[in-house]
Amino acid sequence: MSAEPADPWDATDADGLFGPQTLAHGVFSIPGQLPRVGVRLHDAVVDVHALAVDDGLPWADTLAAPVLNPFMALGPEAWAEEREWLVGVLADDAVDADRVRELSYPLGGPAPVALHLPFQVADYVDFYSSREHAANLGSMFRPGQPALTPNWTHLPIGYHGRSGTVVVSGTPVRRPVGQVRPPGAVAPLVRPSARLDIEAEVGVVVGVGSTLGDRVPVGAFADHVFGVCLVDDWSARDLQAWEYVPLGPFLGKSFATSVSAWVTPLSSLTAARVPAPPREHPVQGYLDDSAHPWGLDVHLEVRLNGAVVSRPPFAGMYWTAAQQLAHLTVNGASLRTGDLLASGTVSGAGADERGSLIELTWNGEQPLELPDGTTRAFLEDGDEVVVSAWAPGPDGSRVGFGEVRGVVEPARPVP
Ligand code: MN
Fold first, then answer.
1. Domains and CATH numbers, the chain
2. Digit-coded pLDDT (tens) for 211-242
């Protein structure tokens, strides 16, 4: 069956998350055609490349690429021009609606519209910016010691991850095999991870890079960052626990990191901006964000095999993405188009606001009870995890981010 055009304004989109206030960008393809940039309108993807060519827009060619990178690299002036154009073209009372209908394809219908990894990931950094998450893990892994390490309230802790294994939502995740040292054992052994976990996170995507040696101050955040996506940082806790001292996460994380198929532009999130929570003590000058609050009131939801197991609140993150960017570049490290900065696991104070299973089950000691009568300490083969989110939009609307979905596949044989 071939992909047939559909009327995007007739689609259900029951929550209204993908009206013209959102303008989530992705990369799609229909059979027989190359992947190109599309913008989501309700339950359809609109071929904005074809529309932009039709309208003779100077940056139309960048939308023919199979990734968002060429368009993102153009920078804020082009992003604003494109936004103004899209708001008119996709409005509920658009004058040229028939033309849009002819270039719209339904998502989730019988026709095979494929969504691809929306951007070529340049460098991938994962932070650790939820105080509650850091304290929960600290008290589990370092009992008897302070829950937070002494540096935690002074800088946004992070590590460089593996950009080549970032995959789009829907890609199956194979249970990794690796070295573990079971509790009480003297010697490690090689086996499939028995403590496979998720981390529900929010990522920002860099559009405009920087020059080696330059810094990107907190106030220049929106000059560089194009938009926001959802991230699931799959984590093998048993591999991680054995390998992470002293250099940090490695194979326990690098087997797969999933991102949503949509990048929601920063410009759609004006109504979602909030100040970060009160700081324990004044931060260093380069991290002072009092004039540039980039907290975002994003509401996440984590579902395991269809059951909601957590609703992590992103607004409570101690460090904002703007501070993370300023910290990442304070030493002169440069940015590239397509850099992905993930927030770290989003966990709130509530027991039902934790963004990982290791916290929700308290290191596996308090398994979750699922509606089908089964329990989970960590993920089992065949389990499906879906992280979704929304944020406040203009005039009481909501802005969507889509979802990041993955099903766990059985491990390959042990080598
Ligand atoms: Mn993480």
1. 25-116 (2.30.30.230), 124-409 (3.90.850.10)
2. 999 999 999 999 999 999 999 999 999 999 99
